[in-house]
Amino acid sequence: MVATQQLDDHIRDEGSVRAALRSPRRLKTEVLAGLVVALALVPEAISFSIIAGVDPRVGLFASFTMAVTIAFVGGRPAMISAATGAIALVVAPLSREYGLDYLIAAVLLAGVLQIVLSLLGVAKLMRFIPRSVMIGFVNALAILIFTAQLPHLIDVPALVYPMVAAGLLIMVFLSKLTTAIPAPLVAIVLLTAATVIFALNVPNVGDEGELPSSLPTWVIPNVPFTMDTLSIIAPYALAMALVGLLESLMTAKLVDDITDTHSDKTREGWGQGIANLVTGLFGGMGGCAMIGQTMINVKVSGARTRISTFLAGVFLLILVVGLGDIVALIPMAALVAVMIMVSVGTLDWHSIAPKTLRRMPRSETSVMLATVAVTVATHNLAYGVIVGVITAMVLFARRVAHLTEVVDVAHPDENTRIYKVRGELFFASSNDLIYQFDYVSDPENVVIDLSDSHIWDASTVATLDAITTKYAAKGKQAEIVGLNASSAERHVRLSGQMGAEH
């Protein structure tokens, strides 16, 4: 079944690429989308390189190799992978303490780990991420995209503000008039032209860092191949692998929802691993799916195929190596305006509307807010998702635990009492079960009917053993009946093995 689905996805991907190549209109959309993404990638890659403590070229080359490679091996068409802030935060301590060679070695190991984890089925864990966490993830992303623009709006020339406003107005009104050309591209071109023609003194891309003047070359990290080296890079590589997989799979799911299409998450996972291997071999800092740029590509520009992803990488290399002098002139105000529009378009406004919040269960809102709060506080989407999932699990367990009850249902004779237990029995709900029986006053024979419940774990078996033991200590017999097949199998296998004495 899985192999059939993967084959169907592959055929559909190839068909969409061929259809785009045959359609001038669709191809134009893909090409222009790739160009807009490439322009937005330049300052982002430079800033992430600074965070990671490496030369800007390391982040730019990583973005090029990641985008081009994932276009061929990834499982989610039109998704953008490149150097990211989350990965930069993970590798920064390693880079500062041990240098670039150890960083590259960690990137290579992270790629191997991502391939292994994906083949072991880590993508299947996506099913355990609740919708409220996904909404929190999206809203936190929108906030982070917006706050990342604030440094470009503080202590800058006054002229920056009307330029940002002009960029926003161009994108808002042009998108209503036509979608033939991506509005962000028009805004970038017009504002850059105005900056050059009128010699405006505003911060530009060139101020962010030096652009490379040569192509990336093959690199083998100059580190000793010893266990000591492995002990240094392994923790960082594992963190990179997990953070990269989580962000990539979450982004893939988000694009699935936007485009109403299915993608192969396992392929996306090992594709990210291959992309990181290629990136490491060309001296890049590693990366994963870029959510902001993916939203520019898919939601703003309307791209739907691998063509846009591939061209984003190709255009990025052409821009920074071949046209670096021109790219350096792009005012940061134009790119800030683009990212603000992405932030506004990414936020799930419906989820924070007062009407929605009043209707939504408080537990769901709490999970969403926990995801947002941790993500914004740590600037790490992976941490926010993990905390959100844990919060959802705890609240779900607490809610289900309160649905369990013990009812005295019958007295067939003076020596027999029948109890019925209703609800799901697991560690949270079964702990109090032992206190809901009258061991002193009950007759000699007690029947505990579990036909309306289910045993989920060893804690429940231990609790049932404790109940029968307490009755036995009073000289009474407790019989457990009504178990379904799964519960009976678990009870028979574990009963008497759990140390039920309390």
Automatic annotation (TrEMBL):
Q: Which InterPro entries match?
A: Membrane-Transporter-like, SLC26A/SulP_dom, STAS_dom, STAS_dom_sf
Q: Where is coiled-coil annotated?
A: none
Quote the CDD domains the UniProt record gives.
STAS_SulP_like_sulfate_transporter
Localization per record? Membrane
Membrane topology type: Multi-pass membrane protein
Highest taxon in the source lineage: Bacteria
Where are its TM segments located?
31-52, 58-74, 102-120, 132-150, 156-174, 181-203, 223-246, 305-323, 329-347, 367-396
List keywords of the entry alphabetically.
Answer: Membrane, Transmembrane, Transmembrane helix
Q: Start and end of every STAS domain?
A: 414-502
Q: Name one GO cellular component term.
A: membrane
- The reply to whether Hydrolase figures as a keyword in the UniProt entry is no
On whether Transmembrane is a keyword of this UniProt record, the answer is: yes
The primary site where this protein sits is membrane
Q: What is this protein called?
A: Sodium-independent anion transporter
| Taxonomic classification | Bacteria, Bacillati, Actinomycetota, Actinomycetes, Mycobacteriales
